[in-house]
Amino acid sequence: MRISDRLRYEIFKRDLLNMKSELDRYQTMISSGRALLKPSDNPVDFSICLRFDSELKKGEQHERNINRLTVLGNYYDSALNKIHELLTKAKEIAITQASDTMDSSTRLSSSEEIKGIIEQLVSIGNTNVSGMYIFSGKTLDTKPFELNDDYSVTYNGTSDVMKVYVDNDVSEELGLSGSKIFISDTNIFSVLKDLKDALEANDVEGIRESLDGLEAALRKTESNLSYVGTYLGKLERVKDLLEIRKTDIQTVKSEVQDADLTKIISDFNAMTLAYQTALYAMAKIQELSILNYLR
């Protein structure tokens, strides 16, 4: 079959366009530093990189969750230290006022101090961080503690808390409930109310009995402080592992998708020369016509 000049010209033009497209691809690889630009470049490696991207995104979310839990953990640590300080002060008051040298007036005055301690503890229990009550359990938008007229305290939160993922298939509690800190095992508010009532009634025996409850409240608070310290340490270790995994994934992903710039630039320069030569040839072809031929 005879190939016409026009067909030869069209084939030449198509090849020229293909060369231009390939040059554009090389330029994109050089500017992005990536050899994989679309699935057709290497379907298997492109799929692997997509899985790496998905894993990195999950890791970023896990890291955000850890940072959030760490911030909360520091709030809990600060709150528990303040609770321990206030309970220690209440214990000192109870020890002093349990002495037979004290009288009803000093005990009545001390009852006002205990009221102040209860009020401060309620304020701590109602700590709000960015619109979230950190001691309310799962009901984060509910103010957890209500101080009643008789200085008893009502808890309106839940005993359990929500959980968030800090790694694949690994979740941690989103903080601590007010029930765990103030109510369960030893009800700190009840212990302090009993002490207040005993002081107001000049009940020496009742004041002495409150010491056992205060000791239990202090041990409970120390246990919670230890828990928070362990909790924060665990979050830090998980964060370190996530960072190591992130670095490993990025390294492997780079090996799969990154371009060999030395080779790419060399190929680009060679193709640029070929393209320019082809353009020159095309220009010469376009100059030819039947008139040129007849001359």
Give the biggest sheet: 2 strands, antiparallel
Q: Please indicate the count of domains.
A: 2
Q: For the record, what is the CATH homologous superfamily label of the largest domain? A: f41 fragment of flagellin, N-terminal domain
Report the end-to-end length measured between terminal Cα atoms: 29 Å
The CATH architecture of the largest domain is: Up-down Bundle
Give the averaged pLDDT, no decimals. 86
The shape is rod-shaped
Give the number of helices: 8
Q: Going across the biggest sheet, name each strand in turn.
A: 1-2
Order of H and E elements: HHHEEEEEEHHHHH
Radius of gyration: 37 Å
Q: Which secondary-structure class do the elements indicate?
A: mainly alpha
| Fraction in beta strands | 5-15%
Q: What is the CATH domain class of the largest domain?
A: Mainly Alpha
Number of strands: 6
Examine the coordinates and then state which fold CATH places here, giving the name of the CATH topology of the largest domain. Answer: f41 fragment of flagellin, N-terminal domain
Parts with pLDDT < 50 across at least 5 consecutive residues: none
What assembly state would you assign to the polypeptide chains in this entry?
A: single chain
Q: Provide the helix percentage.
A: over 70%
Characterise the protein shown here.
With 295 residues, the protein is mainly α. The protein folds into two domains: 65 residues; 200 residues, f41 fragment of flagellin, N-terminal domain. Helix content is 71%, strand content 6%. A two-stranded antiparallel ribbon has the order 1-2. Strand 1 and strand 2 form a beta hairpin. Helix 2 packs antiparallel against helix 3, helix 3 packs antiparallel against helix 5 and helix 5 packs antiparallel against helix 6. The two termini are 29 Å apart. The relative contact order is 0.14. The mean pLDDT is 86.
